[in-house]
Amino acid sequence: MRTVAVVGAALSGLYAARELRDQGFGGRLVIIGDEDHPPYDRPPLSKDFLTGRVDEERLALCDAEERAALDAEWLLGVRARGLDAPGRSVLLDDGRAVRADGVVIATGASARRLPGRGLAGVHTLRTLDDARALRADLTRGTRRVVVIGGGFIGAETASACAALGHAVTVVEAAPLPLMPQLGAEMAAVCAGLHRRAGTALVTGASVAALHGTDAVTAVALRNGRILPADVVVVGIGAVPNTGWLAGSPLVVDDGVRCDHGCVTSLPHVVAVGDVARVDGTRAEHWTSATEQPRAAVANLLAGKTVRSAGTVPYFWSDQYGARIQFAGRRREGDTVHITEGGVVDGAPGADGLLARYRRDGRTTAVLAVDRPRPFARARRELLRAAEPARLAPS
């Protein structure tokens, strides 16, 4: 294998490039990114970057010295428009074609948007440019902010806006934010963080329309309620960036379909990160983006699946000064018990909490709020239990 193209210059693409060099690939390495920016860290965008505690320089995932050490050709500010499988080439929207013996698809996902025309003051938060625009809007005095979607991005953005002194309302279509991830009981406890911070939480409600002529003035809900708004943040999930693969032999189904080792239907093409549907699951988490490339690159260089990318899911979220951590796989029917700390007035107590999910007598997942050390021990237990399944048969 003489040339490998990594399509996507964000977190998973950078980690794939690192793995290629670390695993002994000494050929031509081309990294293609549709943004003009070198790789940067996205989690702070909805947290400390919005509040001004982190500047753009501290978002960088690698410096000039590391980029030089990777000995890669960086094609930034250019979008992939197609995969020519027979010709073993990645086609770019500027007319160029990058011929490659191996391809790593790391194109990530894009923020899902509301239908309708664009109004000033309406934002999504996925990229550095998105965060710049939102931060600029939030510096124009006290604003009435409506966040549509109470998932991780929505909750973290609401928290940052509240910390800046804005009046914040979160609109969530489900009965509770984070119900699919945490289950009803623990989702209710974490929802208490919003209320304790003074953020209004409207659940079981969907958006009918945004009002305004040039700039947004209100959010209309389907139940008839009108929420005045100067700033609206749409946090209703993301769509994997797979449009450029239309017409290729790859199977696209809410992401690029891969086996348990991130290998697609073409053995010389692997996929990692938010765009990858690995063994039936697509996970939009930092840990997936950093752990999958190790197995994916090993399999790409081997020309077949020799290693599994399976691991214990893990995510974290910072909301209203609290660190929420979750590891494992919760399913409907699991029981959950708080084993450390407790709940005060419907929210985690001052010393946080640790909760364990159980099924058939074994721990399947663990949730912590401000209990990092006990959580780390519990997560290690889950990792040890899962270790025998991590290596694929050769």
Write down how many β-strands occur, each being a DSSP E stretch of 2 or more residues: 25
Strand proportion: 25-35%
What is the approximate shape?
globular
Q: Count the helices. How many? A: 8
What class, by secondary structure content?
A: alpha/beta
Helical proportion, percent range? 10-25%
Main beta-sheet annotation? 5 strands, parallel
Give me the side-by-side strand order of the main sheet.
3-2-1-7-19
Could you tell me the radius of gyration in angstroms? 22 Å
Flag low-confidence runs: 390-394
Would you tell me the overall average pLDDT?
95
- Compute the separation of the termini in Å: 20 Å
Structure description:
The protein is of the alpha/beta class and 394 residues long. It is built from eight helices and 25 strands. Strands 3-2-1-7-19 form a five-stranded parallel β-sheet, covered by helices on one side. It has a five-stranded parallel β-sheet with strand order 9-16-10-11-12, with helices on one face. Strands 21-22-25-24-23 form a five-stranded antiparallel β-sheet. Strand 13 and strand 14 form a beta hairpin. Helix 1 runs parallel beside helix 7. The C terminus is likely disordered.
List keywords for this structure.
single chain; 394 residues; five-stranded parallel sheet; 8 helices
Question: How are the SSEs ordered, and which strands pair?
Answer:
Layout: E1 3-7, H1 11-22, E2 28-33, H2 48-51, H3 64-70, E3 73-76, E4 80-84, E5 89-92, E6 97-99, E7 102-105, E8 109-111, E9 122-123, H4 128-138, E10 144-148, H5 152-163, E11 167-172, H6 179-196, E12 200-203, E13 207-211, E14 218-221, E15 226-228, E16 231-234, E17 238-240, E18 256-258, E19 269-271, E20 276-278, H7 286-302, E21 314-319, E22 322-328, E23 335-344, E24 347-359, E25 362-369, H8 372-386
Parallel strand pairs: 1-2, 1-7, 2-3, 7-19, 9-16, 10-11, 10-16, 11-12, 18-20
Antiparallel strand pairs: 4-5, 5-6, 8-17, 13-14, 14-15, 21-22, 22-25, 23-24, 24-25
Helix pairs in contact: 1-7
